[in-house]
Amino acid sequence: MELDRLFADYGALDASVKYFQGKFSYTYDDKGRIAVPAEFRSVLDTIQPESSVLALTLWREDDLVGIEAFPELFFNVEARLINMSDPKRRHEFGTKYFLITIDNQGRILIPQYLAKEADLTKGCRMTIDGNTETFVFYRTNPKS
Asked: What's the pLDDT at 37?
C-alpha cells in the first residue's frame, strides 16, 4: 500500500531532517492564522513532499492549553489503526482532528473551536515548540 511505503520511507530518513525541533514565537493574526516556521515546513516537505496538510488537535500540558500539529501521514496511520467498526471510537476520532492545509505564505488557519479552547485572541503572541514528530502552538502569555 502507498501508506505503508510512505511510512517506511519516513523511518529510513535521517533524524536531522524528520524531526520538528526548536522554539519560535509568532503572532496570531487578525484573520485567525499563524505562521508555521520555515524549519518545520522544510521537515514537512521531507516527510510528505506531495502534501502540505497538517492534522490539528487540542493539546494540554499542566496549565497550558494549545494546539498540536502533526503531518497528515501520521494522521492517516492513526486512522487506519483505529477500529472503525466501533461507533464511539469512530465519532471520537472524527471530531478530535482538523485537517488544515498550509497556505502559500506558510500559514495555517486555526479552526474556531481550537482557537477558543486555546484562548487565542487576535494579535496574541504564540509560542511554537518542536516536539520531535509533532509541534505545538500555545499562547505565550495565557490569561489568568
From this structure: 96
